[in-house]
């Protein structure tokens, strides 16, 4: 129930509502510290660089920091600023601290190694080079810090990295290693808190524009330790995802009992048994082909089965063109076809788009956003491949959904290799979305069952759902003060609740395009005032304890596409392509040699298809 509502913009939030992280250093702040400031900002923590280089009370300032929520000490710059005797005293204060502290070591200098030896009470004996490190690993015993990442490894760029040599202390928790065994991030228990020690030459610049997502993925060792520390120091006052959703998408099938290696009666029975959800990325061109006889199976399993849009005609570069009017027309046509399919069959569709071959242009994203027909896109790539300039930053990829373009969210999905890629997704608060084609099911669902069970072990509270429910519940939130929360959501329809048993003010943020015409915002059907502040829409509601809130952002949609009527030759090519694709999947896929020949034929069809 809504008690009251007031408009609150991002610029009007009080400074006291922000969690504060003091970063102590001496002299000019280097790139690692600036990178740490930016990561803190991404997680709703205001970082303050405090230069102790000319301070006459540097020791006292560091001592005072041990009574706050958390602080960072830059050892490379502080090592020569404070006398050895004072460091010995600070080591005792650190051991008795009630505040989490991050000791950051960015160089191999001997003085820094000696200082770490003092502050860690012998737990660390040296800061050293880890050599050309090609991967980072998260220790399986560090789950309370690395959460879902525990026990997993990730590729890195292979740059010369830093690590540390450990002494004989038995209370060290190794959280992250470089290469095979070199500890790079550890924690030590204090009286009622922890000291974290991170050895790294660099901290990832989350504001740096990316050419490809691989740059972000291979830099995990340069931002994950910062995230772990921020969560340990500030808990729910830092941005976090309250729940993780999951879904399994199968691209291309028509709704028949069997498609290629997919045996839908067995698959849906297994989905109900193991409590997972399956979505077919359904090609809208096939809207007229669903037959009544197999339809009952899918309607009877609507608790664990749904469909979403997969292109329109599923032709080459269908959504990769730059013709905004044509793209708008295609997006509307795909939605209209699925509406007609719903009228014919009673099968609702989840209003998310899967672009054929993962290809889409920047103009396609704008067309999807402006059409008002889609809640978002789900794709393996969160950056359009044909951008003329780098526009996506690491900060955008740290969000549960990437919404840097027109406020239209892209929910990342992944093909199956192993569970580690999903561990990273869940750790970052993103939905766990598996995508596969029919050939994934040739092993009688063994790989699928392994994925479902491993994901359940990784995140026991994972919530399986269709894409609409998944998208409409994806968010991140943080506690501002004792009686207020802030929630950032990503779709024009959103469902949430007050997590506390007492009434709370909930402040909502939604990124929108500057050109978007917002007509209304409602909470549980009641209009509420809102503000536009830069690229964000903001509003607030006061909710009773554990009360739910259903939010709708109304906007003026654009339906003025200018699609050119398709010729009979084009329609014949689309039909031929669909026939050959299904021939390949249903019959030829059972013979590797014949399948190889069929794929060559399909490639020829793609080269000759209508652009």
If you had to describe this structure to a student in words, what would you say it looks like?
This protein has 611 residues and is of the alpha/beta class. The protein folds into 4 domains: 2-237, Class I glutamine amidotransferase (GATase) domain (Rossmann fold); 245-473, TIM Barrel; 475-555, Immunoglobulin-like (Sandwich); 568-608, no CATH class. 30% of the residues lie in helices and 27% in strands. The strands form 6 sheets. A 9-stranded mixed β-sheet has the order 3-2-4-5-12-11-10-7-8. Strands 13, 16, 17, 18, 19, 20, 21 and 22 form an 8-stranded parallel β-sheet that branches. Strands 1, 23, 24, 26, 29 and 30 form a 6-stranded mixed β-sheet that branches. α11 (324-345) packs across α12 and α17 runs antiparallel to α18. The radius of gyration is 27 Å and the shape is globular. The two termini are 51 Å apart. The model is unreliable at 1-16 (pLDDT under 50).
| Named CATH architecture of the largest domain | 3-Layer(aba) Sandwich
Number of helices: 18
Strand content: 25-35%
The residue fraction in helices comes out at 25-40%
Count of the separate structural domains: 4
- Rg from alpha-carbon coordinates: 27 Å
Mean pLDDT: 91
Poorly predicted runs: 1-16
Instruction: Specify the CATH class of the largest domain.
Output: Alpha Beta
Strand order of the largest sheet: 3-2-4-5-12-11-10-7-8
Number of strands: 31
> What best-fitting shape do the alpha-carbon axes yield?
globular
User: What name is given to the CATH topology of the largest domain?
Assistant: Rossmann fold
Separation, N- and C-terminal Cα atoms = 51 Å
Structural class by SSE content: alpha/beta
CATH homologous superfamily of the largest domain, by name?
Class I glutamine amidotransferase (GATase) domain
Oligomer: single chain
| Main sheet attributes: strand count, strand direction, barrel closure | 9 strands, mixed
